[in-house]
Hints:
- This protein has helices spanning 42-55, 64-85, 133-139, 145-149, 187-190, 195-202, 208-221, 241-248, 296-316, 362-369, 376-391; strands spanning 2-12, 22-27, 30-37, 93-94, 96-101, 106-111, 115-120, 123-126, 170-174, 181-185, 228-237, 320-324, 329-340, 344-356, 373-374.
- By secondary structure, it is an alpha+beta fold.
- The chain has two domains: 2-237, PPM-type phosphatase domain (Phosphatase 2c, domain 1, 4-Layer Sandwich); 245-391, no CATH class.
- Strand 13 and strand 14 (344-356) form a beta hairpin.
- The radius of gyration is 27 Å and the shape is elongated.
- The two termini are 14 Å apart.
- 39% of the residues are buried.
Amino acid sequence: MLRVAEHAELTDTGRQRRANEDAFLARAPLFAVADGMGGAQAGEIASATAIEVLSGGLGEGESVEQQLSESVRQANSQIHALSVADDQRAGMGTTVTAAYVGEKHVTLVHVGDSRCYRWRDGALERLTDDHSLVEEMVRQGQLTEEQALDHPQRSIITRALGPESVVEPDAQTVGARDGDLLLLCSDGLSTMISDEQIAAILARGEPLKATTRGLIAAANEAGGRDNITVVLMRLEVLGSAAASEIEATQVGLDVAELPAAKAPVGGAAAASVERRMPRDPRAPTAKRRRRWKPGIGTVLALFVAALLLSGIYFASQAVYFVGADREGFVSVYQGVPYELPLGINLYREDYISGINLSQLPVSERTTITEHNLRSRSDADDLVRQLELGRLGSSTP
């Protein structure tokens, strides 16, 4: 099963714009970038409206391509209605490039000149075609790629959400491999640095947050003429040999032996754990002062206790549970829902979904807040079903 293992996103006004008209969505399994245009802050309204509509979930249709395309059409209708209702917003619009990570494939829906790239095996591939005047001229052989970079009409787009009452987005479904990196970006990145420069930054293999900063810094160093937005997501295919090996070790853990403590969110209140402080060996006794030395039995007992605690900890990392983070978003945690004294957690956040507890019926909320221990595949399946139930029920 395919999922987003990690993602990072960042937007920047750039060096020559006063306001940022870009907007983005980054809630698995749906990601999007929108680049607004229009005076009197109309561009900000257009891009924000597109992202708001997409945040509400998929539209109607038999396939994810159809559902996501319908959501984009709905966004176009709303933006167009706003533009004709207010003279100051007349002609406003926005680009949008959206990626939905399904169980086996990635679905892309695209309007305008924001882009989606895929980084795989050290090679960068552009998956979307710009709807721009210059790009059309390149496709027709009237311009070279190099000439297009500095063409005075490079900012003229031929398709966008808002200017017309009807728009037809490009839609496609592409395959995915374990380790694929998807990049969504506004043209504030792609018009300032070349694909070769983007590839060189991705090739560094830095953490995703550092990579987003590196891409935006490069665009600003090249002039930063426009707003810059970058969304990066690393894909993971579950069910690999490594995942199977982890699941095969999920035996022998007795949670009842763990000290009671509080769960991440929605769990029971933490029970107090009594700790006995060792007596100060320097304190005087009724007989005489004696320097305490641990005997062989004490050393062995401490050694066995350390081994036992280590075994409990490593065993706890072989199981998973579903809970909610501090913002209420359903998440998968590795470990068990307990905390040891001194704030030592026996769990860590493994995956954050795009589903909030407030969106779920009471019966489903109970399933999340009970924190039942599961295998990794069971936990992922539960969250995936919740995501599909809220954002579309079928994949291509």
